[in-house]
Structure formats: C-alpha cells, structure tokens
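Technical note accompanying the year-one report. For the benefit of new consortium partners, we illustrate the data format agreed upon in the data management plan: each record pairs a sequence with a structure-token string. No post-processing was applied to the example shown here.
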Amino acid sequence: MSKKGKVLVAMSGGIDSTVTAMLLHEEGYEVIGITMKTWDYATSGGSKKETGCCSLDSINDAREVAVHMGFHHFIIDIREEFGDYVIDDFVDEYIAGRTPNPCILCNTHIKWSALLKRADAMDCAFIATGHYARINHENGRYYISKATDPRKDQSYVLWGLNQECMTRTRFPLAPYTKDEIRAMAAERGYEALSKKPESYEICFVPDNDYRGFLKRRIPDLEDEVRGGLFIDQEGKVLGTHEGYPFYTIGQRKGLGGGFPTPKYVTEIRPDENVVILGEVHDLLRNGMVVADVNLQKYDHLREGMEATTLVRYNDRGTLAKLFSEDDNIRVEFMANVRGIAPGQSAVFYEGDDVIGGGRILRSL
C-alpha cells in the first residue's frame, strides 16, 4: 500500500487530467482513475461529431493511460443526476432571462459530489482533478488561490467548492504552465496527447449552439417567444427579435441591421419578451447583488471589505467594496464595470486568494 494513500483521479482523456494522474503516480500515491459519463451526445440533436470529455474516444484514451501506467480505471454513469440538475438549471436560467454558467454548477454540485461518493466507496483519502488552481489552508479555512500560469488559471470556476471538498482535493498542476504540462506528456511517451487541442465547449452543447439546444429541448419555445420587441433606453420600439432567451447581456452581433450606431443588449425582460438595446456606455454599471454565496477564505465578510471582483471568466477584475444584504452580497464597484450579466458568476479575490463567490442576481 502507498505511504501517501489512495487518490481517485478524475480522468477525461485530455492532457491535463492524464498528467495529473502521472504526477500523483510518480509521487507515490496509489492512483485510481475514474471517468464520468455526464452526457450522451446522441440525445442532444446537435450536428457536430461527438468530441470532448464524454466521447467514446476520450474514455478510451483515459483507460489506455491507466492500463499503461498500471493502475485501475473505472467509468461511472452520472447522466441522470447531471441532466436533472445541470441541464434543467441551464434551460431554466435562459428562460428566466439570465445567462448561466453550467460548468461551475457542475463542478460544485455534481462532479465533486460524485467523486467524493466514489472515493469513500473505494477507501480513497483524496480526489484529484486537472484544474489549474491551488488549495491553501490558513486560520482553519481552506480556500482556492490562483495557479502559476495566468493563462490557464481556473480559480474563477472553483468558487463553489466547500470546506470538505477542498480538504480532500489535490491539484498537482498548480505549479506548472500549460507548456510545461505538454512537455511532461511528450517526455513520458505521450506525444499525440501532448498535441491534443483544448476543448472550451459546454459538454452537452457539442456544436456550441445553445440557441439550437434550447429549441430542441423545448420544441414550442421558438413559436412562443418569436416576435418580441427590441426597444431602446427610452422605450422606443426598434424592431422585433427572435425571442428573449436567445440573447445575452453585452451581445452585439446577431441583432439585425439598420442601426446608425452599434447596438448592444443592455437588459432582458422575460415577462414582457422585451430586449433592451443601447450604446456601449449603457452597459456600464457601478454595482450588483450576488446570491447563492459561498465563502472560502473567511467564514464571514467584514462590512465594506475591499476585494478585486471578477464578473466573468478572463475578466481582469475591478476593485469593489462588499456589503451583506440579507443572504446576499451587495457589491459597490470603485470604477464602472461593463456587461454585468445576471446568472453569471461573481468571484471575490484578496490578492491571489478566493474570498468567495456567487451568482449575479442583478446589476445596480
């Protein structure tokens, strides 16, 4: 038995999770690989060939690595729990006029839960994934911090992890850049894997067409919402649209032509099937309310504490003050922020450390 204990590694068949398993194996952990089947592309109705973490090729890639390195590998089917929670939420959020982030919801409520459940069944002390992020521990609290490679840092998508999850999670890729990870795979004989392209798609929308997915999921949706109004900031009718669920805050393309200046979606009113358009400056906001808050570095907020706040992935962040408001957090930015989209995640940082995060409820 390994002196470092048993670790259950989530393996998608991609380079990051494969090198994660390699590193832990080399460090002396007893590795068990697990691949989660979250979605069946055949049921999505998309036009694109099956790719990504749920494809048969990816599952076989993960299994081949496990066989080559001499550790056990299992496949688990979590399509039912994934579909009920993540996909239903995805659809419901768009119908509510918001823009969801299903990958964050899946991490928080599905994948980590599924991994810990199987880890307990297999007597594994730890779980591990190929995320680029760190887990730190201070003053009795576990929290996520940014990884070494700023281009690959994934701390933003991990704000929902609770204390128990972080206690048992390992992120071995945190000290490395993506180029270094590719080099490691090549050095160990996985030349093809080292050149495998990144996948940025939502796993259950293989053609990256969420509008088509919504239409297939709700066959009558298009007929119900088509013909709603585009209006400007003063309420003047500018034309008709294809249906409010098919637009997102900040969108500029796909709005039709005929406008003397570029227009952007600045607000969505689902009850009225109305989409409000404006100029780029109309997207600026100086505050927002964040719900479903999960705190990591601290167990409570100091009223008015300052934090660099991100409102989307790859956002540079804006300094803001945080205030408690019932079970929510009110955020007052120190500079205007563009394109705050309800449904997306807001993540609060102190330096490189995640204070916490939540879902954007509304802008102010």
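Partners are asked to follow this layout when depositing records. The longest strand covers residues 284-295.
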